[in-house]
């Protein structure tokens, strides 16, 4: 069967130091100092340095896309593309393809953050917010309904919507024999950004979305929307795309993904 248009996506974020300066009155401090103050105050409030969603700034959006034309994975824009343009391009892609969105924890993190940043930058996202007013097919199956299928948050779905059953992307990928995290982890992104390693952040995000897409293929096999032969063929399409690339992070991913 055809999977239709599928976007497995992921974002990487850093502290929104502009907001932090206003929020905490930190004029005169460097970005690094402001970010660490934000994290310290968050830890005092919650016991964790993980910032609340409105304090997050998007620095990378990566997509693994399957269409009738094939498969590819990439990061939106360039290293120096403004956040506003990254977010607008992401929602424009939804407007163009009306894909099935696939994420890992996207309902609780990625999509709310993208929504807040879209509000911040006056981005328009009418297709994402379609609820059936203009397209009746979205009335009972849209991107916003938790139990709908236009957005599949694999972490949420596979845990049976139970918080205690949730598994991290790296562990789930490795459980399925996939490479898992390559290059860095989410908690290293801020330091990498400060060190000028934005390209590495984008590479890391791309390997995450490939992991996510391959888990999605296994999920479609699980629920009978792919036969075993179709699943193998779809995995082969991803592997062939990886084989054609000489980018170091994709070569590492390919080499860490054993043939089945």
Describe this protein's structure.
- With 260 residues, this protein is of the alpha/beta class.
- It has one domain (6-255): Ribonuclease H-like superfamily/Ribonuclease H (Nucleotidyltransferase, domain 5, 2-Layer Sandwich), CATH 3.30.420.10.
- Helices cover 47% and strands 13% of the residues.
- The protein contains ten helices and five strands.
- A five-stranded mixed sheet has the order 3-2-1-4-5, sandwiched between helices.
- Helix 3 (83-97) crosses helix 4 (106-121) and helix 8 (198-222) packs antiparallel against helix 9 (228-243).
- It is globular, with a radius of gyration of 19 Å.
Question: What's this model, at a glance?
Answer:
The protein is an alpha/beta fold.
Q: Could you tell me the CATH topology label.
A: Nucleotidyltransferase, domain 5
Helical content stands at: 40-55%
- Helix count, DSSP H or I runs of 4 or more residues: 10
CATH superfamily: Ribonuclease H-like superfamily/Ribonuclease H
User: What proportion of the residues form beta strands (DSSP E)?
Assistant: 5-15%
Key terms:
260 residues, alpha/beta, Nucleotidyltransferase, domain 5, five-stranded mixed beta sheet, 5 strands
């Amino acid at each position: 069967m055809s999977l239709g248009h599928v976007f497995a996506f992921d974002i990487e974020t850093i502290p929104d130091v502009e907001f932090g300066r206003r929020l905490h009155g930190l004029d005169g401090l460097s970005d690094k100092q402001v970010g660490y103050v934000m994290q310290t105050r968050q830890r005092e409030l919650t016991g964790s340095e993980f910032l609340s969603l409105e304090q997050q700034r998007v620095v990378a959006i990566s997509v693994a896309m399957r269409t009738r034309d094939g498969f590819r994975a990439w990061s939106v824009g360039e290293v120096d593309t403004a956040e506003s343009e990254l977010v607008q391009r992401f929602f424009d892609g939804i407007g163009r393809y009306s894909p099935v969105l696939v994420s890992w924890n996207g309902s609780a993190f990625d999509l709310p953050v993208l929504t807040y940043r879209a509000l911040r930058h006056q981005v328009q996202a009418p297709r994402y917010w379609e609820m059936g007013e203009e397209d009746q097919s979205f009335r009972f199956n849209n991107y916003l309904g938790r139990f709908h299928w236009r957005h599949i948050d694999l972490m949420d779905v596979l845990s049976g919507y139970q918080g205690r059953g949730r598994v991290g992307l790296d562990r789930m990928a490795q459980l399925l024999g996939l490479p898992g995290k390559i290059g860095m982890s989410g908690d290293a992104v801020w330091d990498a950004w400060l060190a000028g390693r934005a390209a590495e952040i984008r590479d890391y995000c791309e390997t995450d979305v490939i992991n996510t897409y391959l888990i999605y293929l296994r999920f479609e096999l699980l629920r009978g929307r792919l036969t075993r032969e179709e699943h193998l063929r779809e995995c082969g399409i991803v592997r062939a795309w990886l084989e054609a690339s000489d980018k170091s992070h994709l070569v590492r991913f390919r080499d860490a993904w054993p043939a089945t």
